[in-house]
Design a protein that fits this description.
Family: Belongs to the peptidase C40 family.
Number of helices: 5
Order of helices and strands: HHEEHHEEEEEHE
Keywords: Hydrolase, Protease, Signal, Thiol protease
Helix content: 40-55%
CATH topology: endopeptidase fold (from Nostoc punctiforme)
CATH superfamily: endopeptidase domain like (from Nostoc punctiforme)
Strand order of the largest sheet: 3-8-4-5-6-7
Number of strands: 8
Protein name: NlpC/P60 family protein
Number of domains: 1
Organism: Pedobacter montanisoli
Largest sheet: 6 strands, antiparallel
Strand content: 15-25%
InterPro entries: Murein_DD/LD_carboxypeptidase, NLP_P60_dom, Papain-like_cys_pep_sf
CATH class: Alpha Beta
Length: 166
């Protein structure tokens, strides 16, 4: 009887380690699935020219007022993308770009539509370009040009409006 009782702590320790390991693997799978979904959004783009534009600019660092590969801000990225891919002229500032769209519901967005956010108050201060399946591309202040998930709470909480250029 004593032998069985002394194995009990070892069994509990083993079960605890297995539990912790399984929790860690679930977190990894969730992160991998977001990256896989972003890759799917890119591979499902209808415009191959848009795909090339995004991959060419991917990772370019954020620079307020920037408009080239040495650094770019969100409105500059939207301006260049809209001009080069869709031959659409946009104002320079994200706030003015938001005024130059035909508003749409999120569920009706199409590839190339614009999504606007307010992270610093009531006015629009950030813009991205919708891709598909709730993903968009933008110039992030911390990560540079990146494809991101629109359903993340940070974006849902800051979302202001979306639509296509008039």
């Amino acid at each position: 009887m004593l032998k069985k009782f002394t194995q009990f702590p070892a069994i509990c320790l083993l079960m605890g380690l297995l539990f912790l390991a399984s929790c860690g693997s679930k977190k990894y799978v969730a992160q991998k699935s977001t990256a896989a979904r972003a890759a799917d959004a890119m591979s499902n783009l209808k415009s191959k020219q848009l795909y090339r534009f995004i991959t060419d600019w991917s990772g370019v660092r954020y620079k307020l007022g920037g408009l080239d590969k040495s650094g770019i801000d969100c409105s500059g990225f939207a301006l260049l993308l809209q001009k080069q891919i869709y031959n659409v002229e946009l104002p320079r500032r994200s706030k003015d770009q938001a005024d130059a769209i035909k508003k749409k519901n999120l569920s009706h967005l199409k590839e190339g539509d614009l999504v606007f956010f307010s992270f610093g108050g009531k006015e629009v201060d950030h813009v991205g370009i919708y891709l598909n399946n709730d993903f968009f591309v933008h110039a992030s202040t911390t990560r540079g040009v990146i494809v991101d998930d629109l359903t993340l709470p940070a974006y849902q909480n800051a979302f202001v409006k979306a639509g296509s250029p008039k």
